[in-house]
Amino acid sequence: MFSRFIVLVVSLVSLLCDFYVSSCATNCSDKPAFTPSRLVVKHGDPASATCSVCQSACKNTNFGLENSVGNRTINGTTVSWDVDSLTEWGIELMCFYSVKDTEVQCCSILPITVYRPPDSVSISINNHTGPMFEGRQYTLQCEVQNVAPVKNLSVTFYRGTTPLGQQQSFNNNNTKPVDEQYALTITPSKEDDGVQYWCKAELELGPEGPKPPPVVTLQNIRSTVHYEPWVEVSSHTITITEGDPLHLNCSAVGNPTPTYTWTFPSNNLPQMHNNSVFNIKSAAFKHEGTYTCSATNRVGSVKVSFTVEVQGNYIPYIIIATLLLVVLVLAIASVMYSQYYRRNRMGQYKMKDVFRLHKQLIPMYNA
């Protein structure tokens, strides 16, 4: 009989609690005020709050604090609540009093966010292993395990230090820890070969939450992107002088590493060559023509064409012509100087002056 009475009392208390919640008026002029106005608590940590029930309206009426866990202490019109370890999810506190001469209760609700940072965060490429291929679409998948509340979780995808996008589970109101997956579509290019993709999970709990907010990152995954060979210029025109070395470079960038094949304009050249560079020590007119190099890997290929023009080496002829010209100039100068000397030096002496001088010298000689 006594046990039945206890059950009845408990049921009545539960009914009254439900009545309080269902008939609670939150727009009273003198409504209860919680400090703090919102509570953010890490799962398992202690928590506390106080409620100033009213200034005057609650005097001589019934008032209290409705709580499912923790302890409450009443001091005048102030109700204090505390718990050593908060382990329940999705709880609220309601502070209330009965409005005189009515069946209405005035109340305020303290929202409590119980959070748990993720146990782990992992990233992968959905339904894919091995290297990616340039231009194809892939889905990065970030999995966050055992996090609460998931609606406050923000996941950001990164390519190196560059953020690619942010995602949240706005429609998931589950207050208990859950595992959640987030996806982002990417289209890699050759510039993405070797970059690191990663994601960051951050609980954004508002101004009442911890500072800085809880953040969990993970080990990066390094991408391998296969792409067809690529060269900056696919055609070249090269003009060289006969006798100079010829150097043709067909090096291409590609993953996997390209292999090379060449076609040559003359049967005098080797028909098999598998290096990216082709050399001729001394170019001749027979080496003129178009040289084509193909760089190929498993993704694709690219061709590079070299049009080679060989011009004659006229430097030896110019040197000989210059020497002949110098000799000719010197010869002409010598002839002109000889004629000038005869005309201006020997022409100054007349023969009669020579005989007169001879007659003057003979007496002197005989004496």
TrEMBL record:
<dbReference type="InterPro" id="IPR003987">
    <property type="entry name" value="ICAM_VCAM_N"/>
</dbReference>
<dbReference type="GO" id="GO:0005178">
    <property type="term" value="F:integrin binding"/>
</dbReference>
<feature type="signal peptide">
    <location>
        <begin position="1"/>
        <end position="24"/>
    </location>
</feature>
<dbReference type="GO" id="GO:0098609">
    <property type="term" value="P:cell-cell adhesion"/>
</dbReference>
<keyword id="KW-0393">Immunoglobulin domain</keyword>
<protein>
    <recommendedName>
        <fullName>Ig-like domain-containing protein</fullName>
    </recommendedName>
</protein>
<keyword id="KW-1015">Disulfide bond</keyword>
<keyword id="KW-1133">Transmembrane helix</keyword>
<dbReference type="InterPro" id="IPR003598">
    <property type="entry name" value="Ig_sub2"/>
</dbReference>
<keyword id="KW-0130">Cell adhesion</keyword>
<feature type="transmembrane region" description="Helical">
    <location>
        <begin position="314"/>
        <end position="337"/>
    </location>
</feature>
<keyword id="KW-0812">Transmembrane</keyword>
<dbReference type="InterPro" id="IPR047012">
    <property type="entry name" value="ICAM_VCAM"/>
</dbReference>
<dbReference type="Pfam" id="PF13927">
    <property type="entry name" value="Ig_3"/>
</dbReference>
<keyword id="KW-0732">Signal</keyword>
<keyword id="KW-0677">Repeat</keyword>
<dbReference type="InterPro" id="IPR036179">
    <property type="entry name" value="Ig-like_dom_sf"/>
</dbReference>
<keyword id="KW-0472">Membrane</keyword>
<dbReference type="InterPro" id="IPR013783">
    <property type="entry name" value="Ig-like_fold"/>
</dbReference>
<dbReference type="InterPro" id="IPR007110">
    <property type="entry name" value="Ig-like_dom"/>
</dbReference>
<keyword id="KW-0325">Glycoprotein</keyword>
<feature type="domain" description="Ig-like">
    <location>
        <begin position="229"/>
        <end position="309"/>
    </location>
</feature>
<dbReference type="GO" id="GO:0016020">
    <property type="term" value="C:membrane"/>
</dbReference>
<dbReference type="InterPro" id="IPR003599">
    <property type="entry name" value="Ig_sub"/>
</dbReference>
<feature type="domain" description="Ig-like">
    <location>
        <begin position="118"/>
        <end position="217"/>
    </location>
</feature>
